[in-house]
Amino acid sequence: MSEQELSPELMMVVEFLATCPPFDLLQESILHRVAQNIEINYYRRGHVCGSKNPGDLRVIRSGAIDIIAADKRLLDRMGEGESYILSEMYLENPDVTVILYEDSLIYTIPEAIFKELSSKHRDVDRHYHRQLHRRLRRAARYTPEPNNLMRRVDSIMTRDVLSFAPSQTIQEVARVMSERRVSSGLISVDGVLVGIITDRDLRSRVVAEGLDVTAPVEDIMTIAPKAMHVDSTVFDVTLFMVRNKIHHLPIVAATDDRTVLGIITTSDLMLARQDDPVNLVQHLSRALNIDAMRAVVDSLPVTMAEWVNAGIKSNQISHFLTAISDAVTKRLLELGQEKFGPAPVPFAWLGFGSQGRAEQLINADQDNGMVIHDSMKPEQADYFKQLATFVCDGLDACGYVYCPGKIMAMTDTWRMPLKGWCYTVDGWTNQPTPDAVMRVSIFFDIRHIYGDESLTQQLQNHMLDRTSRNSIFLSALADNVLQYSPPLSVFRRFVVERNGEHKDSFNLKKRGVIPIIDMMRIHSLANHIDAVNTTDRINALIKAKIMTVKDGRNMQDAFDYIMQLRVENMAATIEQEGASHVDNYLDPDKLPDVKRRHLKDAFEVVHDAQGFIKTRYRSGMA
Known about the structure:
By secondary structure, the chain is α+β, with helices and mostly antiparallel strands. Helix content is 48%, strand content 15%. It is built from 23 helices and 20 strands. Strands 1-7-2-5 form a four-stranded antiparallel beta sheet. A four-stranded mixed beta sheet has the order 8-9-10-11. Strands 17-16-15-18 form a four-stranded mixed beta sheet, sandwiched between helices. The protein starts with 7 loop residues before the first helix and ends in a 5-residue tail after the last helix.
């Protein structure tokens, strides 16, 4: 069949293949022969691709497929213009399942034709070999880690053991245990274990019995407590503690040598899984110094990448990471008060920006403030300055770098009594200068982190009272909201950087995430809605009938989709280049066609919503 004799349908196939790697490298006459032998099938979403003719090459004309592991993990998703060979997938993983993520039109090229192409055209052969290697590297990231329970117990035990001599008084032992925030102490002689004392012993053997606290601790200690040697596994220790109903287990050098090396508690066993965010928070709440907290924060980029690869959604990841930064902040405030003494008057520590919205990701800088009770005397101001500086310095040392704009509690402007804050808010809303509006965009995403919550609530109520129905202020805020628009031309083409370091990319945070956050903020401020998290604001706006259910759901879908691309892009950068190279820039050409199409849809939702902002709020300037 000659080129002129091809039907219009087959010519459409040729034209499509000419846009898909590696077919775009082949001569048109070769594509004609491929099209003449192609089989075209349409499948509904959920269809499982069977093993019939697994050596055939399948090209996705429209739609998308998911490659699912035996344990239901998503290994890969392929979209329009991508191609795959089932037999290669089965060689990599015989238990893999290929299922249609969307209704799809699939072109099938017979195995014989594909092998002929590969043998005659090196570019075709190289393309599918590289594709295979990429999948193998990706699959390697999913290789199960050795069971945590089979690790040696010294990998999780506490080495900094609190140890006492038998002759020390009960009162002295209790005081040191309280200062160190631990629930047990070991009694030893020349480093050899002879006893153990726990909070339970102090309750049941001292307080309940009315025992003299000046008596030696050996009077109430458990003599020759059970112990396990350092070569034991976490599994061995866990089983031993459960069977013997032990909550504190000394770890010694060997079964016949009672030299103390460490101690394991039931809390340590729960904390054995370092990637569990709840456990990370518990670790931080017990940290004795900044170095211990920094070790946790330093692990977060790799942990976040693991969460993304495990299928955890972006909203959950941002909540996890925010909970961790909250825990670091709270622990620093506790350590600061241990150093400088208790606060002379009540105060509240505030989180602004992404921490305030509980939407933090890695490499976040600080945005915080402190509101102090109005009863503070002038001579007490220096205490709060010292405390705030200690916390902000600690956050920076832990990896939460100083805010470039100095929006931090260590700056006098962001550490004031409540009445000072209210006066400042009044100034921002009465005279909304560009600088004031910039500050508002950060400050009005406010959340209580630590201290007297009533102070935070009073400040937020005052803020909402001053902003709702303030047309001049809302109009100025709308100008700021409209500063960044989605990177989409009128012809639905992505608008990217033309040159420089980020050539052919756009900033996904600045051009996609921030416009949604800004729009939901202005709607909330205008309608006295106290929700701060973007999803919570959308739900509250729907409930208050400020947004229709349809518009609200579209906005939520757009926000979720853009945020998911953002964390996936971050995770890929962490794995390939390291956390120091993470930014918010995305090259849309590196996305599968199906993802590019969905991203354009999300940007259109944002663009339309910005049009409403312009109509609804900017008239206030008049």
